[in-house]
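thread: overnight batch results

M.L. [08:02]
morning all. the overnight job finished for the chain we discussed friday. pasting input first so we're all looking at the same thing
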Amino acid sequence: MFAPKLWTLNFVLICCASLSMTMSFYLIMPVLPFFLSEQFGMDGFQIGLAISIYVIGSLVIRPLTGYALDRWGRRGIFLASFLTFGLTAAAYPYLHTISAIFILRFVHGLIWGSSLTSSMTVAVDIIPRERRGEGIGFFTFAMAVAMALGPALGLWIYNTWGGMATFWTSMAIGTGGALISCGMRWKPHARVSIPLVWGNFFEPKVIPISMAALMFTFAYGGLTNFIAVYVKQEHAGTLDASFFYIFLAVGTSISRLKGGKMFDRAGPRRVAALGFSMLIAGFTALWMISFDDVAWLKAGLFWIAAFLVGMGGGFCMPAFQAMVTLILPVTRQGVGNATYASVFEFGIASGIAMTGWLSQHVAFQWIYLASAAWLAFTALVFFRLIAGSYEKVRRQFEAGLM
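M.L. [08:03]
and the structure it wrote out:
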C-alpha cells in the first residue's frame, strides 16, 4: 500500500510561510527585555508582564478565529492575518510610553493568535491523515527552527545595528511570509451555518492534551525568553546566548524530523518519554553551569543544555499537536486547534511572567532547577492520566469513522 503524498506545493508553501511568521515574532523576543529596560526603565516583573501580555490578545482571538475558519473557510482569514501580522513589528520603535507598549503587545497577540490558528488549521487540511504525525513534525519543524534561530538573529542585529533595525527586519520577514502564502492553491469552501453558541468556540475533547502542553510550555517559555539575561547575570565571557539558540535549533531539528515518523508508528508514549527525559536533563545542566568555574566546561554544559532542551521540545510539541488533530473531524479542526493553541500560548506567557517575577528574588539557576522538577511532575501527569485518556478518545473517534 502506497502512503499518500505529503510534499505537495501547498505543503511546502505553508511551511515556508509559517517559518517566516514565526521568525518575525521570535526575532524580537530576546531583544524586548533590553529594549524595554533601556528605553522605558522597566524592572524584571514589568518586562515579563509586557512581553507576556500578548497572550491575552491571543486568547481572545483564537476561539473567534477557529469559529470563522470552520464557518467561512480558510483563505481570507489566513491571508489577512499574515499580512497584518507582518506589518505590526515596525510600530515598536515609535512608541514612547509604557501604556503604548502594553497596547501594542496586546494587538500583536491578537494577530499572532489568528495567524497561528489559521496556519495550523490549513496545514492539517493539507496533511494526509495517515501521515499526520510526520507532516505535523515537518510543519512544526519549520516553525521551531524559526523559534530557535529567530532570537539568535534578533540579538545579533540588535547588538550590531540597534533596535530600529531589529524591528524593521521583523516586519520584512513577516511580510515576506504573507507574500509566500499568496502562491497557495485553495480548495473551494462551502460556507456552513454554525450557531453562535459556546460549544462552537471551544472543544472540550482537546483539554487533557492541552493541559500537558501548558505544563510543558510553562517551563519552556521562561527559558527561551530570558536566556540572554541569564548569560549576562553569569558574567561569563565564554557563554553566548546566540549560540544557545543555534544549538537549540539543531536539537529541535533532529527530534522533529525523527519524532513525527515515530509517532505514526508507535503513538505518543515513546515520543513523550524521550522528550521529557531530554528536557529534564537539559534544565538540570543549566542549573549545574553556575557551579563550574572552568570556562570550557561551563560553555560545554551550556551548549549541551541547549541541545537537550531543543531535542526534548522537538519531540513533545508536534506529538501534542498531532494528538489533537487525530481525535477531531475536519469540521471541528478550526475550533480544536484554537482551543489547544490558546492553552499552549497561555503556558508560554505565564512562564515568561513567572520567570520575570522570580528573577527579582532568586538566581536563574534555581529557576531552572525548579523547572526540571516541574517537568518531571508534568511527565508523571502525562503518562498516568493524559495518554490513556487520549487513546480511549481516539479509538472511539476511529470506530465512528468506520
